[in-house]
Amino acid sequence: MGFPRIIIRMDSQLAAGQINKSVQAHHPELTKYLAAFRKAEAHFMGISVRSIPRSEIADEDVLTKAAANNEPLLVHVLYEVLHGLACKTRTSTQHRAP
């Protein structure tokens, strides 16, 4: 089976198109990232990618930059700290056959 569906929101139309298979990756580095994504994709029952304007993800952008730079967050940015796995892992008997 797999983990539940996942929805990815991003501000890159190019990356969203590559993941949705409507745009081909030509740059070697992007091709490597896309191959890693395809491998991870097999663990989910479905993946949806939505390209949205950067102005609509301002809080997510602030959270990402603060986390990357180990900076404090603005008061209006809400987040949750996970102290364990976000989802259950599969046992070896649950893996799909190749």
Automatic annotation (TrEMBL):
Organism field: Oryza meyeriana var. granulata
Taxonomic lineage of the native organism? Eukaryota, Viridiplantae, Streptophyta, Embryophyta, Tracheophyta
Molecular function (Gene Ontology), one example: nucleic acid binding
In its UniProt entry, what is this protein called?
Answer: RNase H type-1 domain-containing protein
